[in-house]
Recover the amino acids of this structure.
């Protein structure tokens, strides 16, 4: 069976490989990733991930397994997507400074008529940041393509005091949950990693 990752994210590709899945194809979904602000963040990302999965599934064979995800950062229920520019990145990081917030990733795995569409939540706590620290972080370029304007796996780790939940969810792919779903579809990631 063919495995398809419906994402152009290099982080999601790397995480899938880290799970032991080496043979997969990347197909970028062509959808309007609108943000319906009336939806709770968890439902928003779940819905967008399902739209991505269905868009790619329509382009590939019915036996293919399609994996799609969407991630947002939320503070007090307000969604923070990817910053449009450095000014917006500064604003986002300033409001996250010294606060605990949530990272939501919607995950959809689809094969034919079988659809698993779920979401994962991880709480992240930032230490208090100075304006100079925020500017220096923005100058690295790292915040510009990430929800909430930070990456936990990069320099952004210097901003974070702690997390509660799936670390990989903050990177954009809830690895544990995905492994369980793939297991239900007959893909044993541990066996793949061991070369069995």
């Amino acid at each position: 069976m063919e495995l398809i990752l419906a994402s152009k994210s290099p982080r999601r590709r790397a995480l899938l490989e880290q799970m032991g899945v080496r043979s997969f194809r990347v197909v970028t979904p062509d959808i309007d990733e609108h943000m319906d602000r009336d939806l709770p963040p968890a439902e928003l990302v779940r819905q967008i991930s399902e739209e991505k999965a269905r868009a790619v599934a329509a382009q590939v064979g019915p036996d293919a397994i399609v994996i799609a995800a969407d991630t947002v950062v939320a503070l007090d229920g307000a969604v923070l997507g990817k910053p449009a520019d450095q000014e917006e990145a500064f604003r986002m990081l300033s409001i996250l400074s010294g606060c605990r917030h949530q990272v939501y990733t919607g995950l959809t795995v689809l094969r034919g008529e079988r659809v698993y569409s779920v979401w994962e939540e991880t709480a992240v706590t930032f230490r208090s940041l100075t304006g100079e620290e925020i500017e220096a972080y923005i100058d690295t370029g790292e915040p510009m393509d990430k929800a909430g304007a930070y990456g936990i796996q990069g320099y952004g780790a210097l901003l974070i005091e702690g997390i509660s939940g799936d670390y990989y969810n903050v990177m954009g792919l809830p690895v544990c949950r995905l492994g369980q779903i793939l297991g239900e579809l007959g893909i044993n990631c541990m066996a793949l990693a061991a070369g069995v």
